[in-house]
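# nightly structure sweep
# worker-07 picked up a monomer target from the shared queue
# config: single-sequence mode, recycle default, output format = structure tokens
# input follows
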Amino acid sequence: MKDIKYSLLELATLRKNGNASEAISRATNGAKYIDNLGFTRLWLAEHHNMEFIASSATSVLIGHIASQTKNIRVGSGGIMLPNHSPLVIAEQFGTLETLFPNRIDLGLGRAPGTDQVTAMALRRNNLNTAFYFKDDVLALQRYLSPDNASAKVRAFPAEGLEIPIWILGSSTDSAFLAAELGLPYAFAAHFAPAMLKAASEIYRSNFKPSAQLQSPYFMVCVNIIAADSDEEAAILSTSLQNLFAGIITNRRMPLSPPTEKPIYHGIPEIEQAVLSMTSSTYFGAPTKLAQELNELIEDLQIQEIMSTNYIYDDEKRMKSFDLIRQTFEIINQKQ
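# output follows
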């Protein structure tokens, strides 16, 4: 039997006519629900200057959701490390790990999680920080290590805590780094699927064992819309498609109810752009999902699938979580 783990990426997305308070409450309720369904982890993504995403203060939200759940691992997918001092991130996640032992993950990304103007505001006009991503990861590892006890600068209460560090990416650069450092690697195919296969091959062929990880561990994030029927899932998926159309056309919008057809239907340029950006999207009933996801898992030797859940209706969103669990039960029964 297989043991493919399944997890959730949460952005605390605002719904149409909703607000940030509702979005955070919705994220928290979803976390409580999947905590009992066998989901391995829930990660929150760092984004800035985005009106319809409420996860900008990522560490704060991780603490809130961890306090409302019991078993599921909670972490960052990711902390955009060039926006922050490694010392501050060590202190924040050391505090989280102290509060919630053995339940905190630290996923790290290189991108700003926003536009260039906002990145300048975050980084105080120093956009060169992205070029020092590897150095910052190494510095963060030092702060977490018990070997840092004799250093002049130490991170409390982080020092000596075993907080799993992950490298996140949407390109081959991150695959090389994760392999070199011997860290687990998570690929953002849910919005940038183009280099997925190349990144997986680079990561596995270049992996060097480390104190944290002896063999490659590859997680892929995709969009999953699960429903009782393939037809219902196709309709529900229009909420996701319309959301991405807003990103592509620079007309960002909140998560909206499904539509009979995508709002850009009949506009070839937008249709193609959305299709390209969301090609790692899987929708349907569990049987269909299991077959399609199993092919992806076997092709890329994936250990874990993380999914987004852009479903507008609360009841259907929770139902989708149940069906995702059923999907992976089918996958893991396959020989």
